[in-house]
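Predicting holo structure, pyridoxal-5'-phosphate bound.
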Amino acid sequence: MNVQFLDLNAQYAAIKPSIDRALKSVIKRQDFILGRDVSVLEEEFAAYCGSRYCVCLNSGTDGLFLCLKALGIGPGDEVIVPAFTFIATAFVVTCAGARPVFVDIDPLTYNIDVSKVKAAITGRTRAVLPVHLFGQCADMEPLTRLAREHGLAVIEDACQAHGALYSGKKAGSMGTAGVFSFYPTKNMGGWGDGGAVVTGNKRLFERLRMMRDCGRRSKYEHVILGYNSRLDTLQAAVLRIKLAHLDSWNRRRRKLAALYTRIFSRMPGVTVPVQSPANCHVYHIYAIQVDRRDAVVAYLKKHGVGCMVNYPIPLHRQPVYRNLGYTPGSFPQSERIARRIISLPMHPFLTVRQISYVAKTVNTALKEA
Ligand SMILES: Cc1ncc(COP(=O)(O)O)c(C=O)c1O
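Done. Tokens:
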């Protein structure tokens, strides 16, 4: 049997008529730049997230970067970032001219260990950038309280967590701003690059809207330093169709994850992902931990199981961040998880038979690899 890590063709087949219709209507209108579907998606996605405002942009990376710039964060400032995440979470800080300060993760949820954040705050800290990794929110209640006490902005990296809930609140709606990626593989992905920022802060919203569009207030009046970071109308048309399916696709992911977890809980040698009590995890990634990870990955691939490692190198060990002065052992949990983690196939179109095959193959890999 072959089990793909992700099956975007199956997703397209499920919604083909509505996608094709939506694209045709953009073609008919020819409103390719900041067209009707972009503004409607902004309204719909803000409402979905329970946020007042939404600005669509050309990637999650730009969303994070422009939030930092719009908040005036730059040279001399520090931003707290988990040591275990995708590199974009940190390099946006560097690109804004500030310094990323890493904090270790909680080994059960893979998210920033909030109990270690306070020790990382200095007089230069301006913001904390929690990541809702793999589809589960960071522990936002104590984190936002701490940020409030220290006057810090909270930028939620919700790039992997469309529709996730924390104490009944949507990912992205709890901080100063929440940033999403619409990269094609995400729970809500476009047909190219894309992203969005949601916020309840009117001033931030207005700045972001200008910054993503050449800093303009009107056609040729440019009031702040801007960029070209607009979401294409064609992408917005695709994304509006997918937003309508997001909750049911997330429910299916949760069902499949529960099935994996039920099987693996009886299997010695496998550590399953943990959903913390406040969270409703949307399993963008279903990640287990095993010993001898690389041998297990090779065995799975050889036997038709699409799998990945998110992420093999924690940020403080990345060559690009050698200059920050961290050493091996600086963040032991991040280093340990990076050695042990495997992402298994996870998407709403997997069958129960495929899940059983993946689990069975993991079991034989543990014995034979
Ligand atoms: C945690 C995290 N942050 C940021 C990004 C950047 O998003 P994009 O690829 O849309 O720029 C991603 C996307 O992979 C991500 O997973």
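The two ends are 19 Å apart (CA to CA).
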